Amino acid sequence: RAKDSGKNRYVVYDKTMHTEFNERLHLEKHLRGALENKEFELFYQPQVDIAGGQISGFEALIRWNSPELGFVSPLAFIRIAEDSRLIVPIGEWVLREACRFLGDVQAKKSCTYKISVNISVIQLLQDDFVEIVLDAAQESRIEPGCLELEITESVFMESYERIVGKLERLKAEGFRIALDDFGKGYSSLSYLQQLPLSTLKVDKAFIDPLTEDAYSQTFIRTIVALGHDMGLEVVAEGVERSSQLEILEHTGCDKVQGYLISRPVPEKHALELLNGPGNGKVC
Ligand code: C2E
Ligand code: MG
Ligand code: MG
Ligand code: MG
């Protein structure tokens, strides 16, 4: 930062910084050709309706298998894709591919399922974002109500007005909007009132500490009640133990997602989960 570089300031060569920078450049270089080379795949993690114990839908999660780098976690490349704006074409591919998957599922099964897609704030800033979402849904013949767009609080750090306007248009078209990672980082309760939401996804950070101890359940109980009072569906993320599921059931939380049910799996496996012995009944 320019204002920090006063007279008395000197910069020490930082080796960690240097390697991190090179690492980013390296990733970005390979990321550039990844879409064209078909190196991305979507995995699907089931979401389960607690009351019925049935799979109600899936969250689509991107996977990158680079011939040069091997499997790279989205935690390592989404940020770089955002900074380089590569997230715009990658994100559009994710949206269309996830809709295509759901369209195929709906064609085979009589039930209606939902698909949740993570959307970057950079995508939301594109002028044609609403049209792309409408087109992706129409192309795959899925009802807008079956497509949920997951956003994070980072929408508040960018051109807020422009983004909220788009979210309102999408909501009016019937699409669902979820606030992801609620409770992680700097989420503020006032966000809940300012966004046209359908769903609240409670971050794993609130699920991890859940034990039989009543005190550990205070936050989750309050969040579920708050979400419901606001007319939102509440989904718990990162559920790993059956004891957590039991507690969530008592709080009235609507849905769960986590390793307890299933890890994110490739498309073929996701279809098998729906066609399994319980016909999608998993708990
Ligand atoms: P997220 O949207 O909050 O997705 C949930 C993450 O938690 C996923 O990590 C999932 O594999 C992981 N997870 C689910 N259940 C459990 C559990 O029980 N225990 C633990 N330890 N982890 C669990 P993943 O797939 O590595 O994705 C990480 C993040 O990368 C996502 O967090 C999302 O922010 C971002 N991301 C993934 N795919 C996309 C994408 O297509 N577009 C965008 N813009 N971001 C994406
Ligand atoms: Mg998500
Ligand atoms: Mg999340
Ligand atoms: Mg997230």
Structure description:
The chain is α/β, with parallel strands linked by helices and 283 residues long. The protein has an eight-stranded mixed barrel, surrounded by five helices. Strand 8, helix 10 and strand 9 form a beta-alpha-beta unit. The protein is globular, with a radius of gyration of 20 Å. The N and C termini lie far apart (53 Å). The site of ligand C2E has 22 residues, from strand 2, helix 2, helix 3 and strand 6.
Strand order of the largest sheet: 1-2-4-5-6-7-8-9
Write out the distinct hetero groups bound to the structure: ligand C2E, magnesium ion
What percent of residues are in strands?
A: 15-25%
Parts with pLDDT < 50 across at least 5 consecutive residues: 1-7
Oligomer: single chain
Helix/strand order, N-terminal first: HEEEHHEHHEHEHEHHEHEEH
Largest sheet: 8 strands, mixed, barrel
Domain EAL: 24-278
Organism: Paenibacillus spiritus
Protein name: EAL domain-containing protein
Short description:
Helices cover 43% and strands 19% of the residues. With 283 residues, the chain is of the alpha/beta class. Ligand C2E binds next to β2, α2, α3 and β6.
Produce the secondary structure layout:
Blueprint: H1 15-34, E1 40-49, E2 54-66, E3 70-72, H2 74-83, H3 87-108, E4 114-118, H4 121-124, H5 129-139, E5 147-151, H6 160-172, E6 176-182, H7 189-194, E7 199-202, H8 204-207, H9 218-229, E8 233-236, H10 242-251, E9 255-256, E10 265-266, H11 267-275
Parallel strand pairs: 2-4, 4-5, 5-6, 6-7, 7-8, 8-9
Antiparallel strand pairs: 1-2, 1-9, 1-10, 2-3
Residues 180-181, 201, 237 line the site of one magnesium ion.
Protein name: EAL domain-containing protein
Domain EAL: 24-278
